[in-house]
Amino acid sequence: MTISLFRTAIILTLIAVLSGCSLFGENEPEYIDSIEAEPLKIPPGLDNPSGPAPVTISVPFLRMPEGDELEPMPPRVVSTAGRRDTKAYMAWSAEGVYLMIKDAPVNVARQLESAIGELGMTMLKRDEAGSHKFHYKQNMNTDEGFFSNMAFWRSKPTDYSGTFMTSLKADGRDTRVYLLFGTGEAVDTTGAEHILGIFMDSLGDPGPGA
Q1: So what's the pLDDT on residue 174?
Q2: Tell me, what's the pLDDT at 70?
Q3: What's the Cα-to-Cα distance from 176 to each of 57, 94, 140, rounded to whole Å?
Q4: Residue 57 belongs to a domain
Q5: Cα–Cα distances in Å, from 193 out to 60, 150, 158, 187?
Q6: Is the pTM of this model over 0.85?
Q7: 63-78 pLDDT per residue, tens
């Protein structure tokens, strides 16, 4: 008698499991067949139903990558981010690569103005806030000799010459220096790293006590 009841229980359990699997296997989820209904119409003289206020989710603006930023190449900031013992080093933010200088913006504006002249760049417009407009001419070494010129398969160095602007942004007691084209548009990563790297080498001497 006990064995018979045990077998009956097992059979009933199997039937329930199989029927459940069949139920979920054949029927599609409810949301697939659902349709969007029209807004609720409230008859005249009645109040609209009150519900919980919607939660507003805000997301900070992130600049989308452009140009060479989409290529899987390690940026220069990887090798300079560890130079925190210097006065200037490059770092990365949602707005792109920037040069961090350990000084107030008013001082950095003067330092950039001096550096632009000392580095052989042409100052086009000075700005007290540090938004200096200048022209940079890259020194392209073309005198490589006969055999070097025969190596046509070698890729030529990129010429980053052009008109640019600096843009300063306070970061606590320090200053971020971003690089823009003369038109005000953001410079691509490699171009910004190249020119900001020149400023970094000029202004990045260790501070007192380093």
Answers
A1: 94
A2: 57
A3: 29, 13, 29
A4: no
A5: 25, 30, 13, 9
A6: no
A7: 666 655 555 454 454 4
Domain count, the chain: 1
The verdict on residue 58 lying in a domain is: no
pLDDT given for residue 9 in this prediction? 66
| Residue ranges in the chain whose pLDDT is less than 70 | 1-10, 12, 14-36, 51-85, 141-156, 205-210
CATH number for the domain that contains residue 194? 3.30.310.170
Burial (CB < 10 A; 0-12, 13-18, 19+), residue 154, is exposed
Q: Which domain holds residue 109?
A: 77-139+159-203
Look at the chain and count its residues: 210
The answer as to whether 33 is a domain residue is no
* Distance between CA atoms of residues 65 and 106, nearest Å: 30
Is residue 127 situated within a structural domain?
yes
